[in-house]
Amino acid sequence: MYRTHNCGELNIKNIGEQVALAGWVQKGRDLGGLTFIDLRDRYGITQLAFNMETAAELCQKARKLGREFVIQAKGVVIVRESKNPKNPTGEIEIEVTELNVLNAAKTPPFTIESDTDGGDELRMKYRYLDHRRQPLQNNIALRHKLSVETRKYLDQQGFFEIETPFLIKSTPEGARDFVVPSRMNEGQFYALPQSPQTFKQLLMVSGYDKYFQIVRCFRDEDLRADRQPEFTQIDCEMSFVEQEDVLQTFEGLVRYLFKKVKGIELPEFKRMPYSEAMERYGSDKPDIRFGMEFCDLTELAQGRGFQVFDAVEVIIGINAEGCAEYSRKDLDKLTDFVKRPQIGAKGLVYVKYNADGTFKSSVDKFFDAEQLQAWANKANAKPGDLLLILAGDKTKTQKQLNELRLEMGNRLNLRDRNIYAPLWVVDFPLLEWDEESNRYHAMHHPFTSPKPEDFSRLSEKPGEVRANAYDMVINGVELGGGSIRIHDKELQKTMFKVLGFTDEEAQVQFGFLMNAFEYGAPPHGGIAFGFDRLCAMFGGHDSIRDYIAFPKNNAGRDLMIDSPSKISDEQLDELNLKSTFNG
Ligand code: ASP
């Protein structure tokens, strides 16, 4: 037996017991007559003590141990002289009577401690060593807990966990597919699923009624800090449901997770139509932990001879409470912020509503105090507040002001990590116009059902049709989204037509689904949660990477196994790809 206990469980109650521990050498301290070793495993750290006077040989052996050596130590639990109240095992130590080196180790390339000296890339390369550090182990433990509790809840609700294939044909979710060449079918490719969307719908046709899967999805997108080419979803589908049933079930899931895992009772989930979210916050995933809602100043500010304003579609502002004392420098910084290429505003107009009731603005030449007062009133500003105003094309300006609002929220500490403000955004548009391809795209995916009351407009005014689609948003983070699906073959056909597919193209790509719909498809709908993101939110971090055991870097590379990589000529040949690559 390698061990009787782990390194996190011995305490004062175990005094006098003979024990065996195994683990990694965290570090050693040599105090002349005494040598101490911190022995570490997943569960904690226990101090091993060696006495030069009573056990010289053992002590010398201990002194030769390097960091990260794998050892086994046997001995007796004794009271520690200098206790460490921060460590659960900090009141005891092991007086070692036998020491076995199970494996030597090279000096690790960075320190294996909570605060490490290793940079991101180095730790990615040696991810298996990074996993020995407490913070990462905590993240993985949290992820485990969340997946176990998710399964428990969904099982209690009668969901079946069903696996769907990874080698499929492409399902359009709006991203590029990763493809896999088929050796046995020359010139043909599988695609890795962007999500199990069509399969879960087919499972509903099969009658499984409630399905879920904690499943890997693959999307070949340009990567951002919080995106990974492969990521995990909690993917769910239900039959004989309306939107309300889905919202209730999954509000229930998230409530349950917060309660079980964080001990938090979530407040009521607000509901907000997409159009309202855009008008009030300029975002389809608004952070409603704080107000600072948009104020439309278009009517008040146009027609007063200020060219910049008169030429635009909208003029909208936010009220930053208590910020009238911002200096020139502060305002320049905010202007630079909105002018960054990622945000792209042309400029920022400010109005200081000074504490003494006077106004100072960047447009004083064009607007007098009375006019500025009218703006302030509309924005519910008080003396001491600061209006920040952007103007331009409606959609773009809303997006820009959303960024500025979030930035101000950060600056004013209004985005408290310990507060959770959940929200369902509902009634998304079914379609969005794409300038580039000059056609409509499905905002969610082509299987999303229009709202029944909007069916009739699908052919004539597709842009106005609302979808039975919903997103769950917490603190400005989209945790999940889904929809009620089309289950009628004819409606699905119309939808493909609106999306610019010919009947034939639709048949080639989605024939299997439309055919299935001819055999009694029940009304159905579902949702998928970004599981990595859920973990990051529960852990209080922004980046999902820290919650994925073996993530890829921003260039989509796995630095540890060095992938992607070339493959041999023989492999290419077998896959019938040799000519493609070698001319
Ligand atoms: N398949 C969708 C997605 O991955 C989720 C859903 O509609 O259930 O976003």
Summarize the structure in words:
It is a single chain. The two termini are 60 Å apart. Helix content is 29%, strand content 24%. Helix 4 crosses helix 6 (243-262) and helix 4 crosses helix 15. The model has no long low-confidence stretch (mean pLDDT 95). It has 3 domains: 12-103, Beta Barrel (OB fold (Dihydrolipoamide Acetyltransferase, E2P)); 138-272 and 423-547, 2-Layer Sandwich (BirA Bifunctional Protein, domain 2); 290-415, 2-Layer Sandwich (Gyrase A, domain 2). The longest helix has 23 residues, at 134-156. It has helices at 56-63, 120-125, 127-130, 134-156, 197-206, 243-262, 274-281, 298-301, 307-310, 328-339, 369-378, 394-411, 489-498, 503-516, 531-539, 569-574, 578-581, and strands spanning 18-31, 34-41, 44-51, 70-79, 92-103, 160-161, 179-181, 189-191, 210-218, 230-239, 270-273, 295-296, 314-320, 349-353, 359-361, 385-392, 422-426, 431-434, 439-442, 469-474, 477-484, 524-530. The chain is built from 17 helices and 22 strands. The strands form 5 sheets. It has an 8-stranded mixed beta sheet, with helices on both faces. It binds aspartic acid (ASP). Aspartic acid binds next to strand 21 and strand 22.
